[in-house]
Amino acid sequence: MRQVLSASFPTNVVTDIKRRAKKKKVTVSSYFLYLYEIEKDMISEEEIIVMRDKARSNYKRGKTKVIKSLADLTT
User: Fold this and answer.
1) Domain presence at residue 1
2) 60 is in which domain, residue-wise?
3) What DSSP element (H or E) covers 24?
4) Is residue 42 part of a domain?
5) What would the pLDDT profile of 8-63 be if each residue is shown by its tens digit?
């Protein structure tokens, strides 16, 4: 089931959103769904911080590998 979501934007933002939707050849509603899906797949700031902390910990414990090329990653 679908529901209506109402939002208020400045005129210049509405104009830009409509232009971007038209450029993608989709409705404004479809454009917002597209943006939602993109945002959903993004890595959050919190996830990046966790990954950074884990990488620092691994580095300090010597659990990193010195490589000469990207091919070394597969060995």
Assistant:
1) no
2) 11-74
3) helix 11-24
4) yes
5) 999 999 999 999 999 999 999 999 999 999 999 999 999 999 999 999 999 999 99
